[in-house]
Structure prediction request, 226 residues.
Amino acid sequence: MYDFITGPLLWLSFIVFFAGCVWRVVAYIRGLSWQLDRVAYGPHFGLGFRWALKSIFHWLMPLGSRNWRMRPIFNALFFFFHVGLIVTPLFLLGHAVFLHERWGVNWPSIPGALADALTIVVLITGFFLWIRRIAFPQVRILTDSQDILILVIAVLPFLTGFVAGHCDPASYRFWFILHILSGELMLVAIPFTKLNHFVLFFMSRGQIGMDFGIKRGGERGRGIVW
Prediction:
């Protein structure tokens, strides 16, 4: 079973993930309106691209956007949740060893203590994000079963991985296999659920930046003002 889930099933998960993300990006671009969006972005792509990067950068940086400063506590939870969500699987030592053993790829890794700390951050912030969804009426009214399921799918690989790394040897294999399967489930779910903001955040935020820079006077008179 281990050979199957780390072989064909893993390859299938990666194929679905990458193909699905590309499909999402293409569908997003094709869905832009010629009258409102693409007709403006095309001729002034350089100007728009600069503002797209500026918009993305400010939204990724702590307190870099007005939204950050208006809701600092929630956005701090959201920020650290996503930092752990991305950094931990990318640079976990066990994943780096796997890449080297399977495909000969030398990949950088972070210390185990840091990986554990980031995993705990994901679990704690994920719990508070769940509490937020059920405790605040303005969020609860917009929450459905898919939102809760998505949060579970995102957190499960971290929970199972943490347990596998700290459990007794007798139960290690069970938790390790569950960790791999939950990670593959997350990869497959990303393009087809609201987890697609993994890529669509950059598309929508970039579009807003281009819109501001090209059509709404973002250059403050130094460029094209629509």
